[in-house]
Design goal:
heterodimer, A: mainly beta, four-stranded antiparallel beta sheet, 1 helix, B: alpha+beta, FAD/NAD(P)-binding domain, Arc Repressor Mutant, subunit A, Gyrase A, domain 2, 26 helices, 23% helix, binds zinc ion
């Protein structure tokens, strides 16, 4: 079970959180003008990286904050935690 | 009789006998015994039948590695299957039976399997599945594949769960773990030390082996006394570390009452611990490997280390005439100790031509015959071993030249030691093969350390140094000869067992290799090697070694399978903890729960809430009650508690703009004091929720959701606000449980409302349909909305939860003049089906788009974007043949309502044909006197009036497609 550092509460067990998937996912500015392929790309397609990946997590059973996590999906190392609107940090995979 | 008890020694209390039953017969052991030690001391040799061939089997191990002595403990609701007898502590009245024998151990009718052994080779099950008549074999195989019986009754015990955060967790109570605990505790850290059984000291428990100048049993006692006096140390026996998970979390299963008679235990039976430690030390020791030779599974063939453990822990000598067969030094000490305890050591058979002179000298002093460079060719005997044939062993493991026979009733085998790397491997740790040990040892990993036998370190000096955080390279552990299996003719022997529990032989491994299952993972699944409840503790490494020999590959190139939690089978109950029965999901009670119960409500669970389904009166069926309640509402006035209705407050300067983005309907045009029915989509375009949105003020909305869905809608709102529209100034709060809600409905509802002590004007013009008013009722703040799910004039009255009693009192008092009738969820559902009102989650599913439920036009008219809009317009959403929601009216003269889920089929008969849709809601309509239904039907809205065949639970029905609304289409009743 991962131990995830909530920016507000500190390290808490994974089962207090909900993973919101890859982050950021940019919503097209004008959906009606977006063609089917581009919309499907926004809605369904994800990197699913082996190794360094960027996700948003929600401290659902804690303070309720949404934040970003850079995580290595092989080593399970958490490499960075940053605000929901902050840019992705420059990182090497921790594996 | 073979094993016997000494009159001294062992950690047992000879003054306190314990009577117990095994296979229905009475035996006696002592306090401190396990089921295994007590039966061994009673001379019992055959303790089980093997899984596949039902061969007689005996005890071979002294721990959780035991593959043969697997028992079913107790009876009735408390019966527990698949326990390893060396871990079953005796208590008065214990009642155990073998799991794989039927009807009994001595007369096992399924032992005929052994006669058919050549027809049940490795992968028999897989191959048989491909036969056309698998069904012929299945009943026999299921009967034969015993492995115990799960209790058929609810578990009467309860289980606890807890968490611990400590500085140092040490797993394993041998000298490595004890020394590590002492070292960590001395520096002031909080320390938790756990051991699986009730003994401390591991393999040295009770021995006189010297540790730092003292006999081990004294050293262990001294360290324990010191640790026991330290407030920062927690010592836990009967506690198995079952798993090692991400980020260092370790799960422990602590057995609290299993060692007591069921009537004496109090409190939880077992406790699950989730432990996170600053430092984790794995001192889990090592597991001895059997030798693989013909007949090695006969009762009376035992691991040498186990015999030594039974001697020192329980004062039991496992046999009278003992032959010891080994590849390494450790078994020699077992021979010496047993000789000194009075057993006759017939001989030590060592595959090495030249073991250390010190060992040879000591053996000769004890008068033990030595057979060096030799190995057991075959264990002889039927129900138990009576002799062993031994011979010279070649480098390749083949018996060469003449053999000779040694008589014995106990044959000890010692094939080397495999570090117990399970917890290391579970956490993703890597292994490498150590050629000196002939075993897999852990590679150093981040976050924890392995020490002692678990690290492949079998020397006391270096083990104690590592336990104290020092590095000591001097690992002068035993050198093991390489010998994976012993054969008669050079080929792996089909009568030499590798996995005792799953009945896998060296011959089975050869068969798998011949059929090209050469990866260790394939080997495992094809032969079932290591897949039994012991996860191959005694068999995996031997199996890998044999496969390596067969393929001519170094064992490193074969690799190992991955270990997965739990280390030993763990009861479901301990994982469930308190989450059973009502604890699984706490039932939520309505504000007026007691009032409903007092009125005879038939309660049922709806989305976690216990709600009245109906209020049957004496002599009335529930269906009759529903019909009576519907008619009472349609003709007078009824009261319904609607408190679970989701209520979310949305407030802020951007609240209106935000809700425009969340709902298909436009919300920003709503005037304060007015309500609007609206539906919400997921971003994938499917219907997520519906409800009534009320504008309380310019910047303040009350959003209604489906009962039980308020939390999910709140989370969705917040995710959009926090992650996407981060600059919008909106606050969202779920206030569902803050407000209790009474719904009064029916033509007399206005008269009832006006009789309440309220400052809200309820005259028709002042308070029209789809508006809301804020005021007071009997001094309590109230929010009242004119919304209707029944089709009747209706007031939805919300007061603070704790004022619900006052509201009900006022309604009941005022209602006396109007025959106010309580109605339940089923009457409400019947009325909404009569009106054709959508019920999200019943009439919709995860594929339903707004255009399928009549929201296409509203979507088209709204110019702005909203969540899900674009997705609803993907090509699949634009198909003209989509299903749409319609009404159904049966035309077959059958008064029974259609079954929800019944399929609407295209006209025509005979051939299988794809379904056109299904019934989503159905009820008998007491108002109209006919059965009514709603259904999702392909192109349904374009097929009004069509008669369709319906396949309903094996019967053909017939119905006509109609409009959704079947009652008061003009809506005149809404105003009473
Ligand atoms: Zn938090």
């Amino acid at each position: 079970m991962l131990l995830i550092p909530c920016p507000w509460c500190g390290p808490r067990a994974e089962n207090e959180y909900r993973c919101g998937g890859e982050s950021p996912i940019v919503r097209p500015a004008d959906p009606t003008a977006t063609d089917d392929d581009a919309w499907a790309d926004y809605l369904f397609y994800r990197d699913n990286a082996k190794g360094l990946s960027f996700e948003r997590w929600h401290h659902q059973w804690g303070c309720g904050v949404w934040f970003n996590v850079a995580r290595d999906t092989v080593s399970h190392q958490i490499l960075a935690v940053y605000g929901i609107t902050d840019p992705r940090p420059l990182l090497e995979s921790g594996a | 009789m073979s094993g016997y008890r000494l009159d001294h020694g062992g950690d047992i209390d000879r003054d306190r006998p314990i009577r117990f039953r095994w296979e229905g017969r009475h035996y006696t052991g002592f306090v401190g015994d396990t089921l295994a030690s007590a039966l061994l001391a009673s001379g019992v040799r055959m303790v089980g039948r093997s899984f596949k061939y039902h061969r007689p089997r005996g005890l071979i191990a002294a721990g959780l590695d035991e593959p043969n002595f697997i028992v079913q403990l107790g009876r009735g609701a408390r019966t527990t299957p698949n326990l390893k007898a060396p871990y079953v502590e005796l208590y008065e009245g214990l009642d155990a039976a073998p799991v794989n024998a039927w009807p009994s151990l001595r007369l096992d009718l399924l032992a005929v399997n052994e006669l058919f052994k050549r027809f049940i080779p490795a992968a028999f099950y897989y191959k048989s599945f491909m036969w056309p008549n698998w069904g012929l074999f299945e009943p026999l195989i299921r009967k034969a594949a015993g492995l115990g019986t799960a209790p058929a009754l609810a578990d009467p015990d309860h289980y606890a769960q807890t968490s611990a955060h400590i500085d140092t967790l040490i797993v394993g109570g041998g000298i490595a773990g004890l020394a590590a605990a002492h070292h960590a505790a001395t520096s002031g850290q909080s320390v938790m030390l756990v051991t699986g059984g009730r003994h401390w000291g591991g393999r040295l428990a009770g021995t006189s082996d010297m540790v730092e100048g003292k006999p081990a049993r004294i050293w262990i006692k001294d360290v324990l006394r010191t640790l026991g006096a330290m407030p920062n140390v927690t010592l836990m026996t009967r506690t198995i570390a079952t798993g090692h998970f991400d980020h260092g979390m370790v799960s422990l299963c602590e057995r609290l009452t299993d060692h007591l008679p069921p009537t004496e235990g109090s409190g939880p039976r077992q406790r699950l611990w989730r432990v996170r430690a600053g430092e984790l030390i794995l001192a889990t020791g090592a597991i001895e490997r059997p030798l693989v030779f013909r007949g090695n599974d006969r009762p009376g063939v035992m691991l040498a280390g186990a015999a030594r453990a039974y001697l020192h822990r329980h004062g039991v000598v496992a046999g009278e005439d003992v032959v010891v067969a080994t590849t390494n030094d450790s078994a020699w000490y077992a021979a010496f100790d047993l000789a000194e305890a009075g057993a006759q050591i017939v001989g030590i058979v060592d595959v090495r031509a030249a073991p250390s002179p010190a060992l040879i000298e000591r053996a000769q002093r004890l008068g033990i015959a030595l057979y060096l460079g030799m190995a057991p060719a075959e264990a002889l005997g039927r129900r138990a071993v009576r002799a062993v044939r031994i011979g010279r062993i070649s480098h390749s493991g083949r018996i060469e030249g003449a053999t000779r026979t040694l008589r014995c009733d106990l044959l000890l085998m010692a094939g080397g030691w495999s570090p117990a790397v399970h917890l290391h491997s579970q956490a993703g740790g890597r292994l490498h093969f150590d050629r000196r040990l002939n075993g897999f040892v852990p590679e150093p990993a981040g976050g924890y350390r392995c020490i002692g036998g678990a690290a492949g370190d079998f020397a006391r000096y270096s083990t104690l140094a590592a336990a104290r955080g020092q590095t000591a390279e001097q690992r002068h552990g035993p050198i093991h000869a390489t010998l994976w299996s012993i054969s008669q003719n050079g080929a792996p022997d089909a009568q030499a067992w590798v996995d005792f529990q799953n009945d896998v032989t060296a011959g089975d491994i050869a068969l798998a290799a011949r059929e090209n299952f050469r990866s260790v993972e394939h080997l495992k699944r094809y032969t079932t090697l290591g897949m039994a409840s012991d996860q191959g503790k005694t068999s995996n490494v031997n199996g890998i070694g044999i496969l390596g020999d067969l393929l001519g590959k170094p064992i490193e190139a074969i690799g190992t399978t991955k270990f997965r939690p739990p280390y030993d089978p763990t009861p479901f109950g301990v994982f469930a903890g308190h989450r059973v029965g009502d604890g699984l999901r706490p039932r939520r009670h309505l504000a007026r729960h007691d009032w409903h119960v007092a009125r005879g409500a038939a309660l049922d669970e709806y989305g976690g809430w216990m709600r009245p389904a109906a209020y049957p009166q004496t002599g009335e069926s529930e269906a009759d009650a529903v019909h009576r309640e519907v008619l009472a509402v349609r003709s007078g006035v009824g009261i319904f508690e609607a408190s679970p209705l989701g209520k979310i407050e949305v407030k802020g300067p951007d609240a209106a703009a935000f809700l425009d983005r969340m709902y298909v309907n436009r919300i920003s045009t709503l005037k304060p004091g007015r309500c609007r029915y609206a539906i919400m989509l997921g971003e994938n375009g499917t219907v997520f929720d519906d409800g009534v949105v009320t504008r309380l003020a310019d910047d303040h909305f009350l959003v209604g959701t489906t009962s039980g869905h308020a939390a999910a809608v709140t989370e969705a709102f917040r995710e959009w606000l926090r992650c996407e529209w981060t600059t919008m100034r909106v606050l969202v709060e779920d206030v569902t449980a803050c407000w209790a809600v009474a719904n009064i409905a029916g033509p007399k509802a206005r008269a009832l409302f006006r009789a309440l002590p309220t400052d809200i004007d309820a005259s028709g013009d002042a308070f029209p349909h789809m508006t809301a008013r804020i005021g007071h009722i009997g001094g309590a703040p109230a929010r009242v909305a004119r919304v209707s799910f029944t089709g009747e004039l209706s007031y939805e009255i919300a007061v603070p939860w704790r004022r619900a009693g006052d509201l009900w009192d006022a309604l009941v008092t005022a209602g006396a003049a109007h025959a106010l009738t309580p109605f339940g969820v089923e009457a409400l559902m019947t009325m909404r089906i009569e009106k054709g009102f959508l019920h999200v989650g019943a009439d919709t599913d995860g594929t339903t788009l707004p255009q399928d439920i009549g929201f296409g036009e509203i979507m088209r008219k709204k110019t702005d974007d909203f969540v899900g809009r674009r997705s609803a317009h993907r090509p699949d959403g634009l198909r003209p043949d989509r299903r749409s929601l319609v009404g159904l009216e049966t035309t077959d003269g059958n008064a029974a309502p259609l079954t929800i889920g019944a399929h609407i089929l295209p006209a025509g008969t005979g051939q299988p044909r794809p379904s056109d849709g299904w019934v989503t809601s159905s009820a008998w309509s007491p108002t109209l006197g006919v059965p009514l239904a709603l259904a999702m039907v392909e192109r349904g809205q374009a097929r009004m009036g069509e008669t369709v065949p319906i396949w309903d639970l094996g019967n053909w029905r017939e119905a006509r497609i109609t409009d959704l609304c079947r009652y008061d289409r003009e809506g005149t009743r809404l105003d009473g």
